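Section 3.1: Structural characterization of target chains.
Under the original work plan, the team committed to producing a structural model for every single-chain target entering the pipeline before any wet-lab resources were allocated. The record below documents one such target. The sequence was received from the expression subgroup and is listed exactly as submitted; it comprises 313 residues.
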Amino acid sequence: MIVEIKALTKVYEGKQRVVAVDGIDLEVQQGEIFGLLGPNGAGKTTTIGICTTRTLPTSGTVRIAGIDVVGHAAEARKLIGVVPQYNTLDRSLTIFENLYFHCRYFGFSHGQAKERSEGLLAQFLLTERKDATPSQLSGGLAQRVQIARAIAHRPLVLFLDEPSAGLDPQSRIAMWSAVQELRKEGITVVLTTHYMEEADELSDRVGIVDHGRMLALGSPQKLKDTFGAETMIDLKLRHVEGAETVAVEVRGLDGVKSAEPTAEGLRVFATNADGLLPAVIQASVRLGLRDIAITEPSLETVFIHLTGRDLRE
């Protein structure tokens, strides 16, 4: 295993004690793309922070290719690349210089650093922008530069923390393509995200985390099969105070697995929406039905089934 996490915990003491990571165990195989999924505050970013030596754990261990990230942090850093949530490119340097000096920092000679930087510019379709500064790049281009810089020293593992946050759809797809290409170089990728489509598209396996705990682990398809992903029907009502009464009625309909009030109305999980929708609407219309949304079985419905809350709260 290239990444081994055992009984990992992180507790922030203070006026309010916060358990950010609560006993996570995880093994990531060499060459795979692994997605760590969860809403904001789930503990995934803290976990990545510990893996990349930026945060010290309260207890437990993390090993990268057998190297303990706490006991031998400097050695571990040589084996990892990191793309954080926010743009950390040096704004005073050109794109080429950002790559070049990163290589030099990791011990490359002048010639090696120049050759590697030029190769990465070509690989990530950035050659024409080599003399630009980070402030002159779009969010999508800047993210490609950050990925290029993170793998410049040829790490074994690349950690991506919310890599598509803030990107437009076209830039997100381009970023996905860049990540998938890294597999050909034998780089293991660990990414955090709360975008289920991204996890489904990129990941060989995913781990769903909430409240610092690992709730489920497996391939996207395995999780859908294991947890019986269901169709989710969200109804927005004008008179939400009566949602529980409607929920009781809806629970008695054939094909309904569960029905629970939400802040805006009612959420129904069903094996199939076909033929069921008219009955659900009829039961809800007296409370002033404003809107209805149907989500087909997906990682998102699996997640909500496990955590009982929206992904983006």
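The two ends are 34 Å apart (CA to CA).
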